[in-house]
Design brief:
The N and C termini lie far apart (about 60 Å). A hairpin with a 4-residue loop joins strand 14 and strand 15 (about 315-320). Helices cover about 30% and strands about 25% of the residues. The protein has a 7-stranded mixed β-sheet. It has a 6-stranded mixed β-sheet with strand order 1-2-3-4-13-5, covered by helices on one side. The protein has a 5-stranded antiparallel β-sheet with strand order 26-23-22-27-28. The model is unreliable at about 1-50 (pLDDT under 50). It is of the alpha+beta class.
Length: about 600
Amino acid sequence: MNNAQKKAATAPRKPRRGSALSHRLTRLRSPGDGGFSQAGRSVEAADAPGRNIALDCGWGRLLFTQTFDRYEDLLHALREEAPDARDIAFHVRDPHVLLAQAPQEIFLDPSHTFRLDLSTYRAGGRRPRGVTIRRLASEADAAGINAVYASCGMIQVREDFFAGDRDSRPVTYFVAQDDATGQIIGTVTGIDHQRLFDDPERGASLWCLAVHPQARQPGIGEGLVRTLAEHYQARGIAYVDLSVLHDNKKAIGLYEKLAFRRVPLFAVKRKNAINEKFFAQPVEGYESLNPYARLIVDEALRRGIHVEVTDAEGGFFRLIHGGRTIHCRESLSDLTSSVAMSICDDKAVTRRFAEAASLSVPQQLSADASDEDKRAFLETHGKLVVKPARGEQGRGISVGISSMDALQAAIRQARQVSDRVLLEACFEGEDLRLVVIDYKLVAAAVRRPPRVMGDGRSSIRKLIEQQSRRRAAATGGESRIPVDAETKRCLAEQDLDLETILDEGREITVRKAANLHTGGTIHDVTATVHPDLVDAACRAARAIKIPVVGIDFMVRDPADADYVFIEANERPGLANHEPQPTAQRFVELLFPGSRAQLAAS
């Protein structure tokens, strides 16, 4: 080999340019769609090839510290962070040295770095049933990834990212698709360091592992991690690194199970509004707030609004900004009058106000009526809903009652919540929640009752327990499936009981009420909800004169105009409506000037 050849062999190579992913997306896009826009390069390099590498990931950039010769250059790159983005400087070996240069601008991320040695990794492991894990292949997949990110409270990829003619060869996306629904329910991203900057260690990294909190099948996260690891193992990659928050015990347990081990490498980020909770003085009592209160508090802090937690257990907090103070209990605030609250508190009264506003309401009868009247009411409608006149979170509600014995049992159960019990004609369909803030629709979602899927080995009781644990973990403990008389009644109607072993792949409903707190799931339909339903919900809010409310309808299809009014919730949960901006609109209602301040910050 002559000197010129030796020089060429040892010189750093430029990152490989390719657009394989963009080509696949273009080729597989729906017929009739327009072409993709040009989003620019995702690898931003300095003059020296393979140095000062910053990879655009759509939600922010990954700055690979091992490619920077000087921390001054790394700081300069961090200062170029885009608005509403989260850049990460990864593989920092001497964080104390870097932090000392700009302590007012950057902070040490409270995450651990874990590494999987692919030379000793053993492929295999059980893959999740009812799920297909594959490469990203279409625009629909890209939209599905963003939907998963939104459901997990993660920063979404900007709209033009997947559509651009990008340098994509170093980046690999895998998605997990539900075989029954076709929905994307999980995703993971891999970065090949060797392809990106000729990494002499032949490393790679794992990012953005996310599983939709409403996914029914267990083991999706493990399946995605294994798929990515085996993909890189086949490429001859030496190891895979990842960064995980120090207190994410569930994720750390998964990585340790797969033989990841901690390594002394760190991540550094900029002090921005997105990262504020990791470096700013914490709000006293914040950790004890439930997810519904915490969502609003996070949004308020992001806008520079002062927060005082007044009773964490009850979800009470005070917001103070520009001389204005508003006390809240989750989404209930001083702006909602006591009269509006009392209307919503009694379902019979709420129904009368809705009827006066020309909404379609179901026929109703008091449980105090005579047995003859209740029998006649049941015979007229075939199926009834039994619910306490006062109560929330689905407690005491029985749906689809079709016999006098079941009716009497349901009334007894409802009276444990409220002395007054109501019987309503049962409208077959789906439970639609419309969140109305400032008399405008902000979010619409179908709420579906809890379901479990058989594996051919486990009893229904065990399947419910497993699904309940997943729902609780996904909602901060707010959603669990109770095993009570209503659950047993629902199973008995299907000739099942708690000890029945379901066939593999068979899916059943275990409760008919769709409330989130009793294990129900929420599915966003804001883009497709019928305008007549939106109009009816807004009219109901105006009739009650309530500025923030959750209006519940039963509908055959949210895209159709047919509905019946069920109830109004004066304290609707604003969480679980991703990607709709429920918390943003709520805070803007309380502090209209905060929107302009946020834009200027």
